[in-house]
Amino acid sequence: MDILQWFVDLGASVMLPIIIFVFARILGTAPGRAFRAGITVGIGFIGLNLVIGLLTDSFGPAAQAMVNNFGFELHTIDIGWPAAAAISYGTALGSLAIPIGIGINILLLLIGLTKTLNIDIWNYWHCAFTGSLVYVLTDDFGLGLFTIIVHLLFIFLLGDILQKDIEKFYGFKNITFPHAGSVPSYLVAKPLNWLFDQIPGFNKLEANPEIIQKRLGIFGDSTVLGVLIGAVIGILAGYNVTEILQLSIQTGAVMLLMPKMVALLMEGLSPVSEAAGNIVKKRFPNRNLYIGMDSALSVGHPAVLSASLIIVPITLFLAVILPGNTVLPFGDLATIPFLICLMVPVFKGDIIRTVIAGSFYIGIGLYIATWIAPLFTNAAQAASFDMGANSSISSLVDGAVWTTYIFVGITKIISWYGIGIMGLIILGGLVYINKIKPAHKSSEKNQVS
């Protein structure tokens, strides 16, 4: 267990190169190419984290300035996902999420109940998060562990379901995102997109980055748009001219640099994806294999970044006007792209739809984050996390994600039975999309032949 915790503590930028190298060698990639792939992915993640850090360092103070400028008073602080991950892995229960996740993934692959080979094992912390909250709520270690298992099954199911949309929109062949902080918004976007299609006039609007740039010229360019959004946020924060200009350029830099870091990640992943595809075609000619990766690969898309930057001030506005909300968005404001990145493929890159849907999603999420704040705070104390001067903490990732409410809420109401029923439904979904549906399509094909 100590060795596992040491490995987890290395962080994604060190864990991933090791995992990529090992998987690439298992899949038959030459040692030199496997080593270079791992190193490239690690460097790509460091670059991505540097860009996200730039966004956090620039938006964090701006958000705090907006709070002070408008006199907001909210007593539960959003501490951000790095702290949430540390709390989740900081207990004996949470640290089991990685070995259990690897074991379940291998089992599902062997029996053909998933197509997703997930190498993004560091992000199993999202499942450890819900399990830890259930443990705090019930004081039942077994139930917390069972929650982690069911949550893992859920992300493999969604990883299989959304891969086609990811490939079609982002162009990532045989790559999916079984990322528990991102996949829930995909299921929200589906019915909302249908609803948007039923609204006369609105269903004719097109606002993806290409169309915006075509109509607005230079002002529609994603980098320029980032500069303009940064200026607006600086004005709302009450910044002086110098600070507004600095924030504008920093925001523009994020818009320009983020896609380049994602491209570097994809360069490192290519050998693994190719090797996996060749192995599957050779040994399992009737099966596809998807490489499960961090949804960070998608956050550099102009539609994701543009919509996210617009949603930042909206999130702060919602936090103030929504009655009953106690959470002050702060640490995870720069992580909003991760919350909405899987909405964007559903809306085909439409920024207007993404902003409306994302604002609705986060608005509801603020109530969830408020609801789990006491449990979150207790979990932090159990993990010996230093909360500083804060007496109540929460986060947007994963505190504002609806699956957190479902997993914890259903446990609160009907305990083991609730999680058990959810597990059976999710398992049924895996059987259907990997066994029944392919068999049905094969039968239809034979009939046509």
UniProtKB/TrEMBL annotation:
Membrane disposition: Multi-pass membrane protein
InterPro entries: EIIC-GAT (IPR013853), PTS_EIIC_2 (IPR013014), PTS_sugar-sp_permease (IPR004703)
MF terms (GO), sorted A to Z: galactitol transmembrane transporter activity
Any Gene Ontology CC annotation: plasma membrane
UniProtKB keywords: Cell membrane, Membrane, Phosphotransferase system, Sugar transport, Transmembrane, Transmembrane helix, Transport
Main subcellular location of this protein, as a coarse class: membrane
Any one Pfam family match given in the protein's UniProt record, by short name: EIIC-GAT
One GO process term, biological-process aspect: phosphoenolpyruvate-dependent sugar phosphotransferase system
PROSITE patterns: PTS_EIIC_TYPE_2
Protein name: PTS galactitol transporter subunit IIC
Organism in which the protein naturally occurs: Cerasibacillus terrae
